[in-house]
Amino acid sequence: MVDPSLPTPRLPPRLQKTVPSPVRFSDITKAAGLRFKHNSGAFGLKLYPETMGSGVAFIDYDGDGYQDIFLANGRDWTPAEVRAYTSGPGRVAHKEYGFTSPPLPPRHRTVGALYHNNGNNTFSDVTPGSGLDIEMQGMGVAVGDYDNDGRPDLYVTSYGRNYLFHNEGKGKFKEVAQAAGVQDAGFSTSAMWVDYDRDGKLDLFVCRYIEWTPGTDIWSYGSNQKVRGGYMKTYTGPPAYVGQASHLYHNEGGGRFVDVSAKSGIYGPVATLVSSEPSVLRQRAARARNEAMAPPLTMAQEQARRRAPGTDEGKSMGVALCDVNNDGWPDLLVTNDTVRNYLFLNRKDGTFAEMGIASGISYNASGRSRAGMGVDVGDVDHSGRDSVVIGNFDHEYIGLYQNQGEGAFTDIAGLAEVAQPSTSFLTFGCIFLDVNNNGWLDIMTANGHVQDTIHDMRRDLDFAQRPLLYLNRSQQPVKFDEVGLQSGPGLREPRVARGLAYADIDLDGYPDVLLTINGGVPVLSHNEPASAALRNNALRLTLVGTKSNRSAIGAVVEARFQKVGQAPAEIVRRMVKSGSSYLSQSELPITIGMGRQAKVLSLTIHWPAGKLMVLSDISANQALTINEDRGIVQQKPLARPRSRP
């Protein structure tokens, strides 16, 4: 029997086909006015958070209908943090391997950035005075209106503590994490707003990664090249560290949250104590190197390891909102780095059942865990069910889990021709999006290695890597063509990418994308469809909840393009989502790609609070605002794009 997760054999060069792309992504970063540069804090010590960040969110913070941009940023390490490292277990390795710590560079202040969309493909930096200009080792971003006041708020994760920025209006934000009870601690990554109990108030899920501080950093080298007479230090992998449990916060109203991680079943048996003894930490580093070189554990071996004392769990990198059994209650899918992924099935009573192994989502088809990073869900095959894409380490291949129904998933990455092109890529951000509006979801990934010295260790791998774009062939069984190199300069250049999000920044009906670059300048790419794709129509929907949460997160929309009885009926299904990708969030409004259809014959909206709304005979190429109580309250034409030269 063929393992469906394995890549198909590489075709000889003369048989490799080049598929034309229906879109061209142009890098408009400079022309758009984005001057932001990410500060990872790196200066040679290779402290873990440096290689992880940061994320991006599209947010219409002022309600003008255009998506603005928030970029999380890192910071310099403080002298106290550097002293903690140099007096920690690393000092023994320094002496043994001849590593000399580089001097701490002059300190400079860096903060995240808020860019206002001017409505003409340009943006203005409005960070000063916004309340967002706080220095932090920023990681992830999530957008949602947690107090239902009509203004979207920002939750920003970081190393050390997290931040909740309440949108006060008029471009002002107030940091209220401690007062709200969601400041958290430790090493957080992605986050997501979700109304898991359907009470009309957004709750908060926070991914947490590993137990790490500069003083407990584990020294590791991964190259035989010497620098200044000693070996190069590299970032030690997650197997050397204890995982942290993720947190779920229930929204109590009045701006207050309560940690319900244990009560809800989210909190697992995670060890939380870290020894700082040099001998113990060196043993962990040795174990990490050995595990990296050893064959991956089988599912049986990993289950046995989980039952052993001191089991490491957690190490969460990404979280996605889904409804795997279509019961109208939000489920949670969490990706973990080098340990199994989680699927939390909503029991509808405030608790969750962890069904990752039973569903088939925890491992690849060979029963092995991978370095789960970014994640997204979507109906890629028009089955009416959420399938899942997961970014993994190089030579682990992208995971594409098809929802078979009855709570079962199968990794079809090999059969769908997604695995092979991803072989040498390390994928962080990954998203489903319909790049050409034909109604079928495509896949885009943000790639870049974690080790800047990787090419010294592995000549077949590079630190900077280009994005991948998989075009859905719009057929059954579902298959994809990787067309990144044929899709314009915005996707052609190799970069050390981390976050990835999409939004229709100019309201022309086509999704544009933004890549965040570790230690570099983000890349904003404008989607310029070819002439054939220009003839495809679209419908843009902004949903406003009343009994449901104001952001309508969790709402499911089904657009039917053929009357009942005229088989086969074509239905496009989309969900309003927070979270997904890696450290990032795409826009909350959803776009329905319609192909050549001129009308949506019926638009069914399943609101999070349970209401079912059906609208009929809706013309294409409009931007609609739909209120849960009143139906369509605003409609504007989309600005259709012109053909590219």
Summarize the structure.
By secondary structure, the chain is mostly beta strands. 11% of the residues lie in helices and 34% in strands. The strands form 9 sheets. Strands 6, 7, 8, 9, 10, 11, 14 and 15 form an 8-stranded antiparallel sheet that branches.
List the helices and strands and how they pair.
Blueprint: E1 23-27, H1 29-32, E2 56-59, E3 68-71, H2 79-86, H3 90-97, E4 113-117, E5 123-125, E6 137-144, E7 153-160, E8 163-169, E9 172-175, H4 177-180, E10 186-194, E11 203-208, E12 221-227, E13 230-233, E14 247-253, E15 256-259, H5 261-264, H6 278-293, H7 299-307, E16 316-322, E17 331-336, E18 342-346, E19 352-354, H8 356-359, E20 375-378, E21 387-390, E22 399-405, E23 408-411, E24 427-433, E25 442-447, H9 454-457, E26 468-472, E27 480-482, H10 489-492, E28 497-503, E29 512-517, E30 523-529, H11 531-534, E31 537-544, E32 556-560, E33 571-575, E34 590-595, E35 599-606, E36 612-619, E37 622-627, E38 631-637
Give your account of this protein's structure.
The chain is mostly beta strands and 645 residues long. The chain contains eleven helices and 38 strands. The strands form nine sheets. Strands 6, 7, 8, 9, 10, 11, 14 and 15 form an eight-stranded antiparallel β-sheet that branches. The chain has a four-stranded antiparallel β-sheet with strand order 1-30-29-28. The longest helix has 16 residues, at 278-293.
Low-confidence stretches: 1-15, 269-282, 302-312
Terminal CA distance reads 48 Å
Helix content: 10-25%
Beta-strand content estimate: 25-35%
- Biggest sheet details: 8 strands, antiparallel
Question: How many helices in DSSP terms?
Answer: 11
The global form is globular
Q: Give me the Rg, rounded.
A: 23 Å
What assembly state would you assign to the polypeptide chains in this entry?
A: single chain
Tell me the number of strands: 38
Mean pLDDT: 88
User: Which structural class is indicated by helix and strand composition?
Assistant: mainly beta
